């Protein structure tokens, strides 16, 4: 069997120096029927390894579960990497950052009072142990020393940017070793002295995350990793976008020159990302360094392979750079062609507020519960109010957006990005309804693990407002909730539509959302993700394998208002303006 080890100055594959030329490709952001295509194209760029994170919360949506079906079939993914003749790096967290909801930590963990977050706390450690045993049960037999592709396993992720609990970090490494992982372990940190100290472990190779100034970053890394190979575990070749922000790209020439400098210095690399893919469903995360900024649905990342898997200018430039250091296959993947264009009228509207009874399970609560208690991302709350009006409605913090209605009429919106905390209700009597939306959990920094909903007591004047009914809106099942519903007259509040459209063959499509407000879309029951008129993203990627020849069904849940109730599938993606 192949042996992979850390030498004095190099990785050693069966005793011979080996440079890792890796690209990040997250299986959970790509339709499984497209994995092989993306992996093969990464190989054609000259890479010899594919790296992936593992998202705990996607595999364990509920306590005690570990789902490996469909897009979560890690074993199939790693086997496809091996079948392409490539090696693999696995980064199972438990925290992964990655612009992924909650940085991968399951929201249900934090329903338990006192649960630790990324520190040595018994309840957190017990959950981490269960999770890592499940993942590593898959990875163990796929290690290179057992005939599989896996060369390295990473412990945690940029831990030095978060904490300094060495007991925790060491315990995570011990759990990984105890689960039968025999290949070398690594940590990754930004190349800052304090972070490399807090995030590193003796006996575990330190690597860095950076996208520029390779010589200087590698010198910092070398101070903390006096021997062994130097590796940039995240060579950032692009960046991600936030709703309401600009679309990020990087110069092809400059990024290629940075890659060249890194390879010229003799380092190993994991290009983050070689192919970004998509935050399908409600999986995108958010940042909050004082202002909450949710991440968009596309994870194109301006990577060498775009969101639809087509080679870009960066692909060709990187391939050329890599060819100076390693053999690169002769074949070049074909460029993408325009997507089929078609339109479909959105059918009759079904309004949530017209008859909210059937949109999910209802429960009664004295104080307003968090969304984690209800186990949903979107909930409708109702209460009766009876005070002399106008009346001031206040909360401590809105997470993340609340639409307020009085007797069915919209009276305002509370938004986290604006730090809204108060709304003056025009009357003090009537049926108060509040739709609360989680727009993505923070994936970096201190706010990981925080609850969603209206935080702190909800007050009317100085008194806490109690006696709530809550509807946990079942978004997974939303397309089916429309079955058999009688259409409503158009009106205010969240509205769902269905539209049938014809497809000649199941090729990739791009759904334009420019005429819509803010909501979520599904095709044939597959959740494409969120859309927002704020942009920058103006199209949603529809992977070909989700479609079928003949009739297909689109479902749209619009939380605000559409200009035009028509779905347009357009020839190319639009990820938005590069400047604001
Ligand atoms: C860090 C994290 C990654 C990702 C990138 C930004 O390096 O480790 O998970 O969040 O930042 O894309």
TrEMBL record:
Indicate yes or no for the key word Membrane: no
Q: What is this protein called?
A: Beta-galactosidase
Q: Where is the Beta-galactosidase galactose-binding domain?
A: 494-552
**Residues covered by the Beta-galactosidase 1-like first all-beta domain:** 388-473
Q: Name one GO molecular function term.
A: beta-galactosidase activity
TM regions (residue ranges): none
GO biological process terms, semicolon-separated: carbohydrate metabolic process
Which segments constitute the Glycoside hydrolase 35 catalytic domain? 11-324
**Active site at which residues?**
158, 234
What keywords would UniProt list here? Glycosidase, Hydrolase
* Family per record: Belongs to the glycosyl hydrolase 35 family.
Question: Cross-referenced Pfam families, in alphabetical order?
Answer: BetaGal_ABD_1, BetaGal_gal-bd, Glyco_hydro_35
InterPro entries for the chain: B-gal_1-like (IPR026283), BetaGal1-like_ABD1 (IPR048912), BetaGal_gal-bd (IPR048913), Galactose-bd-like_sf (IPR008979), GH (IPR017853), Gly_Hdrlase_35_cat (IPR031330), Glyco_hydro_35_CS (IPR019801), Glycoside_Hdrlase_35 (IPR001944)
Its lineage reads:
Bacteria, Bacillati, Actinomycetota, Actinomycetes, Propionibacteriales
